Amino acid sequence: MKKLINRPEDVVKEALEGVAAAHAGRLRVHTDPDYVVRADAPVQGKVALVSGGGSGHEPMHGGFVGMGMLDAACPGEVFTCPTPDQMLAATKAVDGGAGVLHIVKNYTGDVMNFEMAAELAQDEGIEVAQVVIDDDVAVKDSLYTAGRRGVGATVLAEKICGAAAELRRPLAEVAGLCRTVNANARSMGVALTSCTVPMAGKPTFALGADEMEIGVGIHGEPGRERRKLASAHDVVEELATAVVEDLPFSRGEQVLAFVNGLGGTPLMELYVVYNELHKLLEGRGIAITRNLIGSYITSLDMAGCSITLLRLDDELTALWDAPVNTTGLRWGA
Amino acid sequence: MRANVTREGVLAWLHAYAAAVTENREYLTELDAAIGDADHGSNMDRGMQAVLGRLDGPSAGGAGGVGALLKLAGMTLVSTVGGAAGPLYGTFFLQMGKAAGEAAELPAAQWAAALEAGVQGVQMRGKAVLEDKTMLDALMPAAEALSAAAASGLSLADALERAAAAAERGMKATIPLVARKGRASYLGERSAGHQDPGATSSWLLMQAAAAALTADAPPENPEA
C-alpha cells in the first residue's frame, strides 16, 4: 500500500482536522461525535439538509456542506456508515425550525442508522423527512435483495434540494423534490483498478492488468461482469446504454450528464468519456443541457468512472443553476 | 439459581455475551467474509467492550433496574457498532428495555414478553422475515420457545435452555438459505452454503442468557 498517510487508523480523524484547518471560515468541524456543519448553521427558517456516509468518497459529503447545498455531513470510518448519535447531533446543530431532510444512500446500514437517528430527533421535537437514493442500474432491483445502491444521483439531489431550501421551500416540498431527482436519475460505473482501504492495506478485489469491472459499486462491490478492458467508446456505449434504457430516457428529452471520476482517473480521461457520451446521446436525440465533469463521488484511489443522467425540466434546471458555495462545488456565489 | 431476572442477572448475561463475542471474534468475521464484508466479529467485539465499559463505569450508577441496564446497552451498541448490526442489536436491547420497564425483577413470562418485544424491534428495523438468512432466524425461534416454556410453567433456567437450543437449530438452518436481506443478498444463490454471521452472534447471545442470566452473581470483573 502506497498512501500519503501517517497511521491507517488516524486517516479519517486527520483528514477532518485538515478540513477544519483549511476551511474554518466556511465550515465547523465537530469531533466526538464527528460531523461537519456550515459556519452559519443553524439558518433560521430554512429546511436543513443532512447527509452522511462512510469516508473515502470525498468530496462527498463534507465537500458539499455550505450555502446552496448541505447544512451538515456525518462522516463514518472508511466505507462504514456513521452512527445515529452523530446524525442526531448534526440534525440538532442545523435545525433552524423548519425541519430537517436526511438524504440517505441505499445501503442496509446507512438506511437503518438514519432511521434510528430520525426517530431520536423526532422524540426531541425536530421534524425529520428522509429520502433514500437508489440510482445504480448495475444492481437488479428486486424483492429479494437490499435494492439498488445510491451513487451519483446523491450529488445532484444534494445540490438541487439545497437550492430549494435556500428559497425557503417547506420540508415536504424539498423532500418531494429529492424523490423527483431520484426517480429521474440513473447511474452506472466501471472500475479499471480496485481501491485500497487504508486499514486493510491491500486492494479490496483483484483485477487483472487488462481487465475491467462493469457495474462496480463505490465500495468495490462486484458489478455485472468482469471482462477485457475496452476502448472509451465501447465502455461508454455499454454504461450509457444501460442507463438510458433503464429509465428510459427518450428522444427529445433534456438531461444533465454527470461524468464522475472514482478517484484514480485523470480529468483528461473523463473528458474523453464525456465526448463519447455526448455523441451517443446526440445520436439518440437526447440533449445534454447541463453537465458536471470531475471526481465528486469517489472510491478512494479506484481508477474508473461512473455516468449519471438526470432528466431535467425547467424547475430542476433553475435549481441546478442557483448559486452554491461549498468546497467541492461552487458557482454564482 | 434465580427464579426471576434481576439487575445482577442481566449484568452477568451482558458480561457472558461480551466474553463469548471476544472468544468468537475471528469465527464471526470468517463467516462474514464469506458472504458479507468481514467485519461482524470486530464490530460486535468493539460494541460489547464499550457496553462493559459503560456498565462498569459511573454512568451505570446504582440506580435503574433491568430495563435501564438494557437501554444503556442498546444505546451503547447503536453508537459504537456501526453497519447494520449496530442499529439491529441496539434496537433489540432498547425494545427489550422498554418492555421490561421499571420492574426490579421479572418472572419468566414477563422476561419472555420482553424478549418478544426485542425481536419485534429487530423485525421492524430490518424488515426481514423468517428464512431471509438473518439474525431473526435464531432470535424468532428462541423467543417462541421461551414464551412457550414460560407459559407451560417451566423454571426460568429450563426455559432459557430451551430458547438457546431453538436458537442453535435456527442458526444451523440458515446454512442452505439464500440471503434476501443485507449485503449478502447481492450474492444471490452464491450465499447458500454459508452459515449466517448475524444468526451466529444471536445464538451466542441466547446461549449466554442460558449460562448466566440465572446465575447468582456476575462473574469477576478482571479490572475491578
Radius of gyration of chain B: 16 Å
**How many domains in all of chain B?**
1
Span from first to last CA of chain B? 24 Å
Structural class of chain A: alpha/beta
Give the integer mean of the pLDDT values of chain A: 95
Largest sheet of chain A: 6 strands, mixed
**What do the pLDDT scores of chain B average to?**
91
Runs of chain B in which pLDDT lies below 50 for 5 or more consecutive residues are: none
User: Approximately how much helix is present in the residues of chain A?
Assistant: 25-40%
Order of helices and strands of chain B: EHHHHHEHHHH
- Strand tally of chain B, please? 2
Number of domains of chain A: 2
Tally of helical segments of chain A = 8
* Percent strand of chain B: under 5%
CATH superfamily of the largest domain in chain A: Dihydroxyacetone kinase, domain 1
Structural class of chain B: mainly alpha
User: Assembly type of the shown chains?
Assistant: heterodimer
Strand order of the largest sheet of chain A: 1-2-5-3-6-7
CATH architecture of chain B: Alpha Horseshoe
Q: What's the CATH topology name of the largest domain in chain A?
A: Rossmann fold
Description:
The complex is a heterodimer of chains A (333) and B (224). With 333 residues, chain A is an alpha/beta fold. Helices cover 32% and strands 24% of the residues of chain A. Chain A has eight helices and 15 strands. Chain A has a six-stranded mixed β-sheet with strand order 1-2-5-3-6-7, sandwiched between helices. In chain A, α4 (153-166) packs antiparallel against α5 (171-183) and α6 crosses α7. Chain A is globular, with a radius of gyration of 19 Å. Chain A starts with 10 loop residues before the first helix and ends with a strand. By secondary structure, chain B is an all-alpha fold. Chain B has one domain (5-212): DhaL domain (Serine Threonine Protein Phosphatase 5, Tetratricopeptide repeat). Chain B is 64% helix and 2% strand. A two-stranded antiparallel ribbon of chain B has the order 1-2. Chain B is globular. The A-B interface holds A 33, 76-77, 80-85, 108-109, 112-113, 115-116, 139, 143-146, 221-222 and B 39, 78-84, 86-88, 90-91, 125-126, 178, 180-183, 185-186, 188.
